[in-house]
Amino acid sequence: MAQHLIAIFGGAVSGAEAAWQLAQANITSVVFDQNALPYGKIEDGLPKWHAKLRDKEEEAINEKLSHPLVHFVPKIKLGEDIHFEEVLNNWGFTAILLATGAWMDRPIAVPDIDNYIGKGLYYQNPFMYWFNHYHESGFEGETMHITDGALVIGGGLASIDVCKALMILTVQKALAERGIDEDIFSLERSIAKVLENHGIAFEELGVKPCTLVYRRRIKDMPLYPGPTDTPEELEKAERVREKIVENAQSKYFFEVLPNHVVVDKVVEGDRLKGLVLRKTKSEGKSLTEIPGSDYQMHTDLVVSSIGSVPEEIPGIPWKGSVYNVNECECCRIQGYDNVFALGNAVTGRGNIKESMAHGRSITQTLSENYLFDPETNLKDQLREKEATVGGNIDVLLERFHPLEPPRETSRLATLKKVEALQKLAGYNGNFMEWVEQNRPVRLEEMLGKIH
Question: Is the pLDDT of residue 288 over 50?
């Protein structure tokens, strides 16, 4: 009897869960990932101070992708190393599942500002990648030059993490200049507490705090996914949002500038030296820019954290900032009977916090817990994402029935192509051995920290 063979692009939370669910149905899948290791933003976007959560989630992915019915192919990026139309028409897969995530930063709406990337401007995704990996001896990525007094454009939890990282790095440097050695794990727990233990006031350090620029009020920040349908629910949501920001500011000393939008750039020579900001007035969903309120805010560093979207892949239809899908048909890509999107490729939300809710609601308790236990909050949301993907696979299995599986000769030929790509990447087919060979050195291990 002919057997189905499914291609999955992206091996992190959504892709691994899809492969695992298919394996439980005795269906073979091939998981392609653009990186050597299939952890996505668990590895490269979740700040490295969440070491315990990162390790636990990566272990779960390892277990799923180690299944005998799952073939892993590292270092293959769809649209670059392998083309969508080629896979669709020539490889003989029953279906293609896209779990490629959202890795492209949403651009700042200022003409030509991207000319200054690396010259005073960074975007969140490459910034957090650098922050997570710069301690590695063999790190070959872009080097970020961090200064105090940065401007962070954003408003969500991911932008708060960017502010935390900037404050940790600048305070750590200032303490080192005083002969005080503090690691990021201690500082992440609370900069305020570390300084108190040393008998130092923040103002004594001479560190300019970074400033988070948000277009609406603090109580409008997208930090709370609970219901806001009634006046009572809205009031509660606004209190929680303000409390989250207040709690973070008291620990890390960054500032928040609400009701401002970026309208232009300040350039000196070949570097970005600030932003032109315009005041706004917000009430509910309405946002009004105030004419004549523009002013310059100077800085040596701007980090944009205004969201992430999937990267466009030739051959896959696009709608707005996400793939064009039919959500009523299990997120089938428009124009194709056997191509489906999962996870961030559907939601168009690139950070872990915001992308977990694809397909079902997150309980309001989760965001309240973020005030006191962010790791539990993130972990619960990852389970939410897995449950959503699992439900999607149940529906997809029904849709696979009318699809004709490849003939055995075609199936074997496809697996031969897969094996050739594995060899090209230096992968011998032993997933756990590959993980051990390519696992990055952990900062906590270098410091002798046990978590």
Answer: yes
Cα–Cα distance, 288 to 83 (Å, whole number) = 44
Q: What confidence tens digit (pLDDT) does each residue in 87-143 have?
A: 999 999 999 999 998 889 999 999 999 999 999 999 999 999 999 999 999 898 899
Residue 289 is given by DSSP the state E
Strand partners, 319: 322
DSSP letter at 427 equals -
Which stretches of 81-183 are DSSP H helices?
84-90, 124-133, 157-177
Give me the mean pLDDT over the 180-192 stretch.
Answer: 98
The one-letter amino acid at 331: C
Q: Is the dihedral of CA 227, 229, 232, 237 positive or negative?
A: positive
How much is the pLDDT for 367? 36
* Domain boundaries, given as residue ranges, for the chain: 5-103+309-446, 107-306
- Please name the amino acid found at residue 179: G
Q: Six-digit token pair at 80?
A: 């670059």
Predicted local confidence at residue 331, as pLDDT: 83
* Kind of pairing between the strands at 322-323 and 318-319: antiparallel
Q: Are 393 and 255 in contact (CB under 8 A)?
A: no
Whether CATH 3.20.20.20 fits 107-306? no
Question: Minimal CA–CA distance to 329: which of 340, 343, 320, 344?
Answer: 340
Closest by CA position to 4, among listed 422, 419, 421, 393? 393
Would you say 297 and 273 are in contact if contact means Cβ atoms under 8 Å apart? no
Name the maximum alpha-carbon separation found in the chain: 75
CATH architecture assignment, domain 5-103+309-446? 3-Layer(aba) Sandwich (3.40)
Residue 415, C-beta contacts closer than 8 angstroms, at least 6 positions apart = 5, 30, 71
**3-class state of residue 391 by DSSP:** helix
- Residue 243, exposed/middle/buried by CB under 10 A (0-12, 13-18, 19+)? middle
The SS3 call for residue 199 is coil
Helix orientation angle between 191-198 and 231-252, rounded to the nearest 10 degrees: 40
Whether the per-residue pLDDT at 296 is higher than 60: the answer is yes
Question: What sign does the CA torsion over 43, 49, 50, 52 have?
Answer: positive
Q: Look at residues 80, 65, 77 and name the one whose alpha carbon lies nearest to residue 30.
A: 65
pLDDT at 281 over 60: yes
